Amino acid sequence: MEPRISVSSFKDVVSPGRSLSASFRYGSFVNSTSSLDKVRPSPAPPARGYVAVAVLCYVNLLNYMERYTLAGVLLNVQKFFNISDSTAGLLQTVFICSFLLFAPLFGYLGDRYNRKYIMMCGLVVWLITALCSSFVTENLFWFLMLMRGLVGIGEASYSTIAPTIIGDMFSGTKRSSMISIFYIFIPVGSGLGYILGASIASATGDWRWALRLTPILGVIGLLLLGFFCPNPSRGAVESQGQTNTEPTSYKEDIKYLLKNKSFVWSTLGVTAMAFLTGALAFWVPLFLSRAQVFQGVLQPCTVEPCQSIDSLIFGAITVATGILGVGIGAGLSRCFLDRVEYADPVICAVGMLGSVPFLFATVFTASVNIPATYVFIFISETLLSLCWPILADILLYVVVPTRRASAEALQIAVLHLFGDAGSPYLIGTISDAIQRSNPVSPEWSFLSLKYGLILCPLVGVVGGVFFLVTAIYITNDRKAALQVGRGEATAVSSIELQTENGM
Questions:
Q1: Distance CA 109, CA 116 (A)
Q2: 172 — alpha (psi -120 to 50), left (phi > 0) or beta?
Q3: Residue 330: what are its φ and ψ, rounded to 5°?
Q4: Distance between CA atoms of 345 and 372, rounded to whole angstroms?
Q5: What contacts 384, CB < 8 A, 6 or more positions away?
Q6: DSSP classification of residue 418
Q7: If DSSP states are collapsed to H, E and C, what string results for 198-217?
Q8: What is the rounded CA–CA span in Å between residue 383 and residue 423?
């Protein structure tokens, strides 16, 4: 299927007085003799492509289930280890930090070697370390921290590479649909993580059993990847199976990405989104529990297992809003992108900025009305979920095919480093600082976390602005990447496009 935009003739993009050789070279080591996939496979047949997407979605579901299972039993974890808010926030920070540190490595490997085998090796690391973390004892909090860090290494391999495989099996609106389905499982998996984590902890009386479910299900995912996931040629869909790339270094890949303004500004936007969603995902169930203690509806938890109804409700809301928001976002993209080429970043901006007043309402309403707070959470999460399928599609169509894994890796590193790696710990630190300045009481336990969470909607405003800036550059960057994918040019960067056209 043809991509969804019309492309101007080659002479409209590169001026007649400039030879193609003047442009920097584009390519990857994918064609070098060192590549593990020397015999380049043809694109996956449609039926096999759909099966592969189903397998990738299943593993993505487990990926996010595992990531947020711990947040679903956070109150139990705090009681088990007797730790403060800031120390509890470190659990997520350690996981995300290892995730972001190894993402560039997997991006480099994913643009050069067999992506299927890389994902499978990463999944093995994830399964072993996730299972080991479930055997921690009260005096081994450091071991839980270590295992969470190693789990991040395994998940980095999958999250970096899986979207690029989908991008190389489908094109145009079909690719957008497959990416939308893939990204639905981010909120669905996150929500199920809360639900299953809280349910298993309540049923067994031991929160550690909640960490043993995803490794068991992950073994199935590992087998499915081995049998049903292909390793399609990079960019084969755009170029009808032909490759027209020359080798470049990783340094040249990074220089290309940093000159791609759509990639840079959308990465900043998704970083702001990761900051607020990471903080909300980690702290909201505990915040709602403390709000009910503040209102006198619940008694403070002193002995495990602690009450888990807030994690269950929040998980259900996350699943529902994820499906609804991703569906709406994908539908809006398909509806407007053919007519408005910069529609995608504008939709993301609307989602981010539109969620801000409801996030403020969530923070300030919790002290007086829990049902109304859940309504505001539902609306804000739906608006934020508009962005998930669009963000992935933006990266795939503004970055040339054999640099997509590097682009995914760089974006993941930035969004985690400045986004959800630090936000749970930062808000926990703010909460602890406020608590130390006030009497020890359920009231200040709630208020301190409330004041820390006010930071989230403020960051949402900044993220919305970043997406609006992305809209300025996205049309030219998309045309440049499309031409390279079709083999019409050796390489034309976004900055060259703008210079040649007098922009």
A1: 11
A2: left
A3: -65, -40
A4: 30
A5: 273, 276, 277, 325, 351, 352, 355
A6: I
A7: HHHHHHHCCHHHHHHHHHHH
A8: 20
* CA separation, residue 316 to residues 201, 285, 319, 320, 445 (Å): 17, 12, 5, 6, 25
Ramachandran sector of residue 116 (left: φ over 0; alpha: ψ -120 to 50; beta: rest): alpha
CA distances from 425 to 93, 134, 208, 280, 282 (A): 6, 22, 22, 12, 10
Q: Show the tokens assigned to 322.
A: 């994820």
Q: How far apart are CA 125 and CA 134, in angstroms?
A: 15
**Closest residue by Cα to residue 151 from 174, 126, 128, 127:** 126
Helices assigned H by DSSP within 337-454: 343-365, 370-385, 387-398, 404-415, 423-436, 442-453
- Token pair listed for 71: 């947040």
Residue type, 11: K
243: left (phi over 0), alpha (psi -120 to 50) or beta: beta
Helix axes 387-398, 141-167, angle to 10 degrees: 60
Amino acid at 152: G
Give the separation between CA 6 and CA 200, rounded to whole angstroms: 52
User: How far is the C-alpha of 186 from the C-alpha of 474, rounded, in Å?
Assistant: 25
The per-residue DSSP string of 261-294 comes to HHHHHHHHHHHHHHHHHHHHHHHHHHHHHHHHHH
C-alpha angle 373/455/450, rounded to 5°?
45
How big is the chain, counted in residues? 503
First to last CA, the chain: 31
Going residue by residue through the chain, which has 503 residues, state the pLDDT in tens, using 9 for 90 and above: 434 444 333 333 333 333 333 333 333 333 333 333 433 444 445 678 788 888 888 988 888 888 888 877 887 888 888 888 778 877 877 877 777 778 777 777 777 788 888 888 888 888 898 888 888 888 888 888 888 888 877 777 777 788 778 877 877 677 777 877 887 888 888 888 888 888 888 888 888 888 888 888 889 988 998 888 877 776 555 555 444 445 567 778 788 888 888 889 999 999 999 898 888 888 888 888 888 888 877 777 666 666 667 778 888 888 888 889 888 988 888 888 778 888 889 999 999 999 999 999 999 998 889 899 999 999 999 999 888 778 877 887 888 877 777 787 788 778 877 887 778 888 888 888 888 888 778 788 888 989 989 999 999 999 999 999 999 998 888 888 777 655 544 444 444 444 344 44
Nearest one of 443, 433, 484 to 89, comparing CA atoms: 433
Return the closest-CA partner of residue 152 out of 416, 487, 467. 416
Distance (Å, rounded) from C-alpha 179 to C-alpha 392? 7
